[in-house]
Amino acid sequence: MYLVIHGPNLNLLGKREPEVYGNLTLEDINQQLKDLAVDLEIELTITQLNGEGEIVDCIHQALNDEIEGILINPGAYTHYSIAIRDAISGVEIPTVEVHLSNIYQREDFRHKSVIAPVVKGQVSGLGLNSYLLGLRGLVSEVW
């Protein structure tokens, strides 16, 4: 079983800054991930959480749920959440970080990911394909 965690404000996709994030909704992304999961012959659990503590709890719960890998878009928490970083590090479940936009082409404060040092990889700037490539990498364990 693999876990997808969408972070804060991703429930607003399709409405929020379409010039940055495109017109896809979160449900569109989830459906594409579900379709890919069928092709990859894996089970997938998908959740969207706005609260930092909720995300930490979800990552901790992944240990009990015997999750094999986590695909996470931490949203704005990417840049400052030591709590999410430590949760990922603490559970030692292979994790891939994804972003729809290229965080390195945006505002300066978005250029640093505190999550990146504790994940197996990061895919950003490819829109929907960031998620799909991230899931493929996670499942194939290319590292």
Automatic annotation (TrEMBL):
> In UniProt terms, what function does this protein have?
Catalyzes a trans-dehydration via an enolate intermediate.
Active-site positions on this chain: Y21 (proton acceptor), H99 (proton donor)
Enzyme Commission designation: 4.2.1.10
For this entry, the protein name equals 3-dehydroquinate dehydratase
Show which residues form the site (Transition state stabilizer): R16
Q: Which reaction does it catalyse?
A: 3-dehydroquinate = 3-dehydroshikimate + H2O
What family does the database annotate?
Belongs to the type-II 3-dehydroquinase family.
Its quaternary organisation is: Homododecamer.
The record's listing under PANTHER family reads:
CATABOLIC 3-DEHYDROQUINASE
